[in-house]
TrEMBL record:
The chain crosses the membrane at residues 12-31, 37-70, 90-110, 130-151, 172-194, 200-221, 261-278, 284-304, 324-344, 364-392, 404-428, 448-468. It comes from Effusibacillus consociatus. Signal peptide: none annotated. Keywords: Membrane, Transmembrane, Transmembrane helix. The lineage of its organism: Bacteria, Bacillati, Bacillota, Bacilli, Bacillales. This is Citrate transporter-like domain-containing protein.
Amino acid sequence: MSRHPREGTVCLSLLALAFLHLIDVFIPSSWSHLGTYGVLLFLLVSGLFLLRGIPLVLSCAMLLAGHSLLFLHGGTFQEWGNSITKNVPLLSLLILVPLLQIPFQAGGYLDAVEEFVRRSFDSKQKVVNIFGAVVFVVGSLLNLGGLRFLSSLAGPMYERYGDLVLRTMCRSFVSSILWSPYFATVGLTLVYLHLPVQTFLPSALALALFSLIGGIAYTLIEASGFAKKLHSAAAASKDETASSSEHHMEQSIPVESRRKLFVFLLLLVLLLAAALTIEHITQLSMLTVISVLALVFPLMMAPFVNRQAAFHGVDGYRNGLSKLVTEVMLFTSAGFLGGVLSTLDLGTGVAALYAPLAAFGSYTVILALVLTVLLLSLALVHPILTVTVLLTSIPPDLLGLHPIAMGLSVLTGWSLAMTVSVITPFIVIISGIFDKTMLEAGWRQNKWYMMVMALFLSAGIWVINKLLA
């Protein structure tokens, strides 16, 4: 299927933006600065014509507010340039990270994962535990791009276990955004709090696993309440498939699939270790390191994968690239507004709203930050705006929090918002995968989970904050 010429231009512009950013990091020059400004402005103007609905309104509102504040306070062109390009490193990450999926798909490694998961069909406990763990691992590496692969795993299970699969996929995936440096959410937090990833990662990974285990436990407890109804509704189907399912489970995974599954896990560990090592040695930001790895890793894997499958993966990457215009608009406008706020004294007003909460203890402050991001997302305020304003306006020590604890607090609110808010791209994708409305896929499935986990994860962050103090 041929694409609209405008989409092809947008794709080339996105790639140009990512490469210009990397050139500007390693070989800074005036032309790379000007090129970045030019491409970014072209994408913003394109976004005005390509976007619709809430993302367009929100992006325009943030850009208008940022320019108004900058003008009223006599901002300079340099301040404008620094603010408008503030989130370009994040955009580079968003644009290039999906390339990582190509060698995993073309090398058959994701097929091995799929074969492993399909052996968990015989009970809902295995579906929740095994599928949930796989979603967490794949999501941690492949970001939203991994949802396309995960949807192929979820389809057959959904036919048998219904919304249990949807809830498992949703809750396990959002746990991965609490720690993975491959997510722009984590990158945004690290940039605004000036935290090195090796310092942030242990606490973030601990909270992410805490969230994953808590989510799986909650899902299983929730499922047990309607287990009898599920059993009676699916009894006939289960009886018919029991013998074939048992026979399927008795078969061991083929040697080649086991080898590829092992290599897949090994590559995940090596990619993470490489990112941490390169950041430590070069002192580059993790956003830049991940962007470079996303370019180099597929090239290194090229001799070991199926060439035709790799070309097919490249086509899939190009088709998905033009859809990133929404993220470009939101991240650029939010970064611009946050950059402007950071140069003004207006942020002190936001800080003044939260400072009194410190008298009630750190748990109250943590929960307030989580709920701020979460509740505003339900009011159709995108988390990226809320997180940007909070992190650029409130010094963590003013609230009695360690910077890591504050970062985890806003990430937790963002993570939970992804399960219920119709303004997040994640819910849009999930609703399409399971053929439901966004309200059905989000709020109706996860409203109680959202409330319970907000309290549960805030307690986990409180413990982390105590340990870091």
